[in-house]
Amino acid sequence: MDVSLASWLVIALAVAAANLPFLTEKVFGLVPLKQREPGVERTKHAFVRVFELLVLYFVVGACAYLLESRIGNVFTQVKEFYMITVPLFVTLAFPGFVWRYLRKHRR
After folding, report:
1. Distances, alpha carbon 16 to alpha carbons 6, 33, 42, 73, 80, in Å
2. Residues 26 and 32: beta-carbon distance below 8 Å
3. 27 secondary structure, DSSP code
4. pLDDT tens, 75-86?
5. What is the pTM assigned to this prediction?
C-alpha cells in the first residue's frame, strides 16, 4: 500500500468514526441500549457520545499507527500532535452533530 492510499484511508476512517456516535442510538453502532419500558426508545446521553468519540479517536489513531508502521519508520508523537489531531477529529464530527442536535427531525 502506498503512502497516498494509506493517508486517504485514514482520513475516510476518521470521518466515518467521528460521525458514528451521532448517527445511531446504539453504543459504538453495535450494542443497543436497554429499554426501561417496552415500546419506548431510549436515547444516548451526551456523555456517552463523547466517550464513544474519545474511544473512536484512539481506534483511528491505532489504525493510522499500524498503517504508518507498514509503510516505514514510525514518527514519535509529542503533545503538539495530539493538540492538532483531537480538535481535527472533533471538527470531522461536526456533520453528525448537526444532524443529531441542530436539524429538525420529523416525528
Report:
1. 15, 21, 23, 27, 24
2. yes
3. B
4. 888 899 999 999
5. 0.82
Helix, strand or coil, per DSSP, at residue 22: helix
* AA identity, residue 13: L
Query: Do you know the residue count of the chain?
Result: 107
Q: Please name which of 88, 67, 68 lies closest in space to residue 76, comparing C-alpha atoms.
A: 68
Joined grid coordinates for residue 69: 508502521
Q: What is the CA 55 to chain-centroid distance, rounded?
A: 8
C-alpha cell belonging to residue 83? 493538540
- For the segment 29-53, what is each residue's pLDDT rounded down to a tens digit? 677 666 666 665 567 778 888 999 9
Residue 16 clears pLDDT 70, i.e. is over it: yes
